[in-house]
Design brief:
The protein is built from ten helices and 15 strands. A hairpin with a 4-residue loop joins strand 7 and strand 8. Helix 1 crosses helix 3. The chain is an alpha/beta fold and about 260 residues long. The protein has two domains: about 60 residues, Orthogonal Bundle (Arc Repressor Mutant, subunit A); about 180 residues, Rossmann fold (3-Layer(aba) Sandwich). About 35% of the residues lie in helices and about 20% in strands. The strands form four sheets. Strands 6-5-4-9-12-14-15 form a seven-stranded parallel sheet, with helices on both faces. A three-stranded antiparallel sheet has the order 1-3-2.
């Protein structure tokens, strides 16, 4: 017997009370309806302000990450956590490697934490990261071209994508807008998503930089599934909820102690 629209929508909202997000395909299978039917339900519920649609599904309004602050504000937010994350990430870089450091305030802390005598190649879409490392005598710093976003001074566009398509890195550190076990890694800037995807495709090891405020939330634009990543560098324990339990081990999570910055 077909499930009525009112019942489908009630069950969607009930699911979002238990989980930060749901996927269209999973919910279609659960209800025995087509993904298109679920999408129409999500459109109607979003119109009523009861959820927010994201790529591949929907997220609870209560669990959505707030709009990204201006760079001048974000650089002051979670500053101790970001420094700890930066130190933990920098400790993973070996001499002679080619390393990608993404855009964002936490990415800048990775650059600052790299040893001054490190011999390596650093590639980045961030003019701030490039400027920070430009005086290091033993680093080769490569910066992507493209359109520059004010504040973060992040490059994006076709030139940026082509730059990273031709680059093979041993390790890449990605910035994050938000992280959800259901929706995956998400970001606030649509133009920068293709760049992140190319970096993921061409790097041997991809680690996401995320302080504790980024978990169990979603930003508007989906980058990838968490299974596409090799780990997360964060400032505290990995989330303990049941929806995260199956991801922690295969993702080889790297956690940074907030008080020491050491990898554990």
């Amino acid at each position: 017997m077909p499930v009525l629209a009112v019942e489908r929508r009630r069950r969607i909202l009930t699911s979002l009370e238990r989980s930060p997000a749901i996927t269209t395909d999973e919910f279609a299978a659960e209800l025995g309806v087509s993904p298109e039917t679920v999408r129409r339900d999500l459109i109607e519920l979003e119109r009523r302000g009861m959820l927010r649609r994201v790529h591949g599904g929907a997220a609870s309004v209560a669990r959505l990450a707030p709009e990204e602050s201006a760079y001048s504000e974000r650089v002051l937010e979670q500053s101790e956590a970001k420094r700890a994350i930066g130190a933990a990430a920098a400790a993973l870089v070996a001499p002679g490697q080619t390393v990608v450091i993404d855009v964002g305030t936490t990415s800048l802390e990775v650059a600052r934490a790299l040893p001054h005598d490190l011999r390596a190649t650093i590639a980045t879409p961030s003019l701030l990261v490039a400027a920070e490392l430009s005086t290091r005598p033993h680093l080769q710093v490569l910066v992507a071209g493209g359109r520059v976003r004010p504040g973060d001074l992040a490059c994006s566009g076709a030139e940026t994508i082509d730059f990273f398509r031709d680059l093979h890195a041993e390790i890449a550190f990605l910035g994050s807008g938000a992280i959800s076990p259901t929706v995956g890694l998400t970001d606030y800037h649509r133009d920068e998503v293709p760049t992140k995807r190319v970096i993921i495709a061409n790097a041997e090891r991809v680690l996401v930089l995320a302080d504790g405020t980024k978990f169990d939330r979603s930003a508007p634009y989906r980058v990838c599934d968490l299974s596409d990543l090799d780990g997360i560098v964060t400032d505290g324990p990995f989330p303990a909820g049941p929806e995260w339990a199956g991801l922690a081990r295969p993702m080889n999570v790297v956690a940074a102690a907030a008080d020491s910055g050491r990898v554990r």
